[in-house]
Every structure is written in C-alpha cells, then in structure tokens.
Amino acid sequence: MEEYHYFVAHGFSGGMSEDFQQAINLAFIETGLKALYWDREFKSGEHILKKIEERILTTQFGIYDITNQNPNVSLELGLAKGAGKSLYIICQKGTKILSDLQGLERIEYEDYKDLTNKIKGYIIKSESERINEIKAQRKTYEKHMMPEEDVLKNCVKLYKAEWLHHKFGIEVEDKEAHSQKAWFADLSELRDHVIYGPYEELNEQGNYIAFFKIKIDDNQSIEPILFLDVAGGGGGGRMLCGIDFDKPLTYQLFAIRFNYPGKGKMEYRVHNRKKQNLKVWIDYVAIVKP
User: Fold this and answer.
1) Of 46, 251, 279, 285, which residue is the least packed, with the fewest Cβ within 10 Å?
2) Helices marked H in the chain
3) What residues does 166 pair with on adjacent strands?
4) What total number of domains does the chain contain?
5) Last residue of some domain: 117, 140, 163?
6) Is the peptide bond before 198 cis (omega within 30 degrees of 0)?
7) pLDDT: is 153 or 139 the higher one?
8) Using one digit for the tens of pLDDT, what is the confidence trace for 10-56?
C-alpha cells in the first residue's frame, strides 16, 4: 500500500497523549498509512483552525477520540461529518456519550492494547478495502489509455477547456497546457460544473474515447473529487480521486469510453462533487475514434 494520511483528534495531554498516539501508530505499522496529529502538526495561532480544517478535508479519513468530551474534538468531528469525510469515532468503555453523538457508530476500547487491536480489526480492514477498490477501478480505465501524442494526432474533436461552458473558474496562462492556456478553478468556491458543453454532434456513429487532460494541486486524497462524464447521444462517466493523479501539479489524461448512436448533441463535463480545499486546471477534452 502507498503512503496515505489520516487525521487524529483527541483530548489527551502529556504522557497520556504519548501513550495514545503510540497505540495508534503501532496499529498502522507497515500499512503505508501515516497519522497527522493536530498537536504535533500545528503551533497555536490565529490560522490554526483553518489549517486543521484543511488537514481534515485532504486526509483519507479521520479518527476522533471523544473520551474526554474535548470541545476541539467535537468541533473537528463536526467539520469532518459536515464535509462527508470517512471518519471513525472511538472512546474508552464507560465514557459518558453526549446526546448529539449517541446515535453515531463508535468503537469502544478497554485500554491502549485493546485500541491497537480494534483499529487493526476494523479501521485498517475497512480503509484497505476502500483503497484496493479504487486501485482496481484505476486498472480498468488504464486499458483505454494512449500517449498524448497519439491522442492529439488521432482525435476527431479537440475542445480547449476555456472554449467550453463554465459555472465557475477563470482562464489562466499555463506553460504546461497544450496552447499555454487552461481553465482554472478553486474547488472551495462552488459545487458545480467546472466545464460542460459544447452540445455538438459527432460525424458518425461508433465507439469513441473522450480524453480529459487535468491536473490538481494535491493528489493525496482517496475521497471523490471530480466526476467526469460524457452526456448526450452516448454516455459514460467516472469518478476521480486524488490518488488517481500520479503527481500533484502535473497534467494527466483520463479516458472515458462511450458509444455514439449516430445522432444527439454531445457534452463533456467535469463536475466538482463538493466544496473542498483543492485547485484544478483543465487543459482540453479530446475525442478519439479508436
């Protein structure tokens, strides 16, 4: 498994904090999953809450210990839940659960040794399955890939992102883009289509592949980020997660195979699934008839 990050919130201090973190770290040895503890990551300051929020939104999942009913943990848990993040609530057995949290699933542990075992048996198993499912999906899409040189040489339609329709974002200069221009969007601004259109027919029926050339600034997340789809006379779609990108700030092609029945105005869309602290650049959509 590659190295991914998860967020940990707790209300312990001093020696108890060290013992707690050691129990969690022990569970994740050799998994490739790395913990981010707010008390180790950040120093106090006026922007600490914003930094914590960014960590919550960009890590794969979160572990929230409510044993001490710490208000900061409750706040961080609320942020994660509101953002739809994968999260796990844990506490020591006998903890008095606040009424707002009583209906939520939680993992209770006897001691730190039991905590390590519970994490191995439930959290690691669950997250490993989720990561492996995403990796299997990636292999399916990779079958339709081809070098960019071949895409540009064989495409029957080439739509620059700035030529298409947009719900938000701006045109920017980008030396890495095909024509040194791209469409840029801050995904924290809006949950909507970054590009869509152009509502044009294809010349003949048959099988096609739409290649979307995109880059993002952070490729750590396994959470859904963008939904790419082809709509109109023929259709297809796929979800993109951060880890679908090999590198941050590097353009990559993503393929969607579809069948065009011979009539119907086509649309090629990139949709932001939820507001998130990520930035995206779209270069073009190329349509190839293999």
Assistant:
1) 46
2) 14-27, 38-41, 48-58, 71-82, 112-118, 125-142, 148-154
3) none
4) 2
5) 140
6) yes
7) 153
8) 987 777 888 999 999 999 988 878 888 866 665 555 467 777 887 78
Same domain flag for 158 and 107: no
CATH number of the domain enclosing 190: 2.60.120.260
- The CATH number given to whatever domain includes residue 113 is 3.40.50.450
Q: Of 84, 106, 140, which closes a domain? A: 140
Average pLDDT over residues 196-216: 94
pLDDT (tens digit, 9 = 90+) per residue, 88-103?
A: 999 999 999 888 888 8
What is the span of the domain harbouring residue 26?
A: 4-140
pTM value? 0.65
Number of Cβ within 10 Å of residue 186's Cβ equals: 17
> Mapping DSSP to helix (H, G, I), strand (E, B) and coil, where does residue 159 land?
strand
Q: How far apart, in Å, are the Cα atoms of 128 and each of 153, 170, 241?
A: 40, 37, 15
With helix as H, strand as E and coil as C, how does 166-219 read? Answer: CCCCEEEECCCCCCCEEEEEECCCCCCEEEECEEECCCCCEEEEEEEEEEECCC
**Are residues 195 and 73 part of one domain?**
no
Residue 289: how many other CB atoms lie within 10 Å: 15
In angstroms, the CA 196 to CA 285 distance is 10
* pLDDT on residue 134: 63
CB within 8 A of 284, min separation 6: which ones?
Answer: 158, 159, 160, 161, 177, 178, 213
Least confident of 9-18, 34-43, 172-181, 191-200: 34-43
Taking only the tens place, the pLDDT of each residue in 240-262 is 988 889 899 999 999 998 989 88
* Same domain membership, residue 85 and residue 29: yes
